[in-house]
């Protein structure tokens, strides 16, 4: 569904990522690790075509993005839910309005019952009318996950979703992501947290990718 073949990414003429080949098959669960600045966020941005490769081939759901127009790419991106590292909420809108935003942006009607159900699922039913600055770090991440799931995407990409959370809250977020994977969604989580990876591997057949020296590698089974 997301496929990279010999993909490279450069910023300002300098290559950050090289020769990356990967197929994210439906229902798979991947972690993405690597040192700070290795290119994890950049890799995720390639996966949802926020950035286009400077070389190589990127296909989303069977279509090579090079042959697609902006609207076609935007259409395919609706099948990918993203949990951004910094959540990216509109602070003047309520949590419920932020979560509903992706659907509203496509001109579709929001089913209020489904929205409440989604907020309950992430444990934020009582905070539906709160503003994002009033949420704790864990609540923000769960709201960001709800927003990513709002469009019923096939793929969820989460960039350091537990970065600032305590262990208990990290586990809570992880269990939501595992639940989504068990429902058939493809999940990719960028993280530095090896304990999180080890914990997840007890429950799901997760593969661990690592970015090292500009290349994407499959990490060993010791993780
Ligand atoms: N738009 C951009 N223009 C130029 N350089 C960029 C841009 N975006 C990222 N970079 C650089 O690319 C490198 C990789 O950044 P990226 O955010 O992908 O790494 P990361 O592995 O996610 O890091 P972290 O773990 O710290 O979040 C960094 O050196 C960053 O400064």
TrEMBL record:
Coiled coil: none annotated. One of its GO terms (molecular function) is ATP binding. It holds the Pfam family ABC_tran. SUPFAM superfamilies: P-loop containing nucleoside triphosphate hydrolases (SSF52540). Residues 2-223 form the ABC transporter domain. It comes from the Bacteria. Keywords: ATP-binding, Nucleotide-binding. PANTHER family: CELL DIVISION ATP-BINDING PROTEIN FTSE, IMPORT ATP-BINDING PROTEIN. This is ATP-binding cassette domain-containing protein. It comes from Rhodobacter flavimaris.
């Amino acid at each position: 569904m997301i496929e990279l073949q010999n993909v490279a990414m450069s910023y300002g003429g300098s290559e950050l990522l090289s020769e990356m080949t990967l197929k994210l098959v439906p229902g798979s669960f991947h972690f993405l690790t690597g040192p700070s600045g290795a290119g994890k966020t950049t890799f995720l941005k390639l996966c949802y075509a926020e950035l286009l490769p400077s070389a190589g081939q990127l296909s989303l759901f069977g279509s090579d993005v090079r042959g697609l127009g902006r609207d076609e790419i935007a259409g395919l991106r609706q099948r990918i839910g993203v949990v951004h590292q910094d959540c990216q909420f509109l602070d003047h809108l309520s949590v419920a309005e932020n979560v509903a935003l992706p659907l509203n942006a496509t001109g579709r009607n929001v089913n209020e019952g489904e929205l409440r159900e989604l907020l309950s699922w992430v444990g934020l039913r009582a905070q539906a009318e709160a503003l994002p600055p009033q949420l704790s770090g864990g609540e923000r991440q769960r709201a960001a996950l709800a927003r990513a799931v709002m469009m019923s995407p096939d793929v969820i990409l989460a960039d350091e979703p537990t970065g600032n959370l305590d262990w208990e809250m990290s586990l809570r977020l992880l269990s939501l992501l595992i639940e989504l994977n068990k429902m058939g969604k493809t999940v990719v989580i960028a993280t530095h947290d090896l304990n999180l990876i080890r914990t997840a591997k007890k429950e799901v057949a997760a593969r661990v990718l690592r970015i090292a020296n500009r290349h994407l590698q499959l990490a060993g089974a010791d993780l």
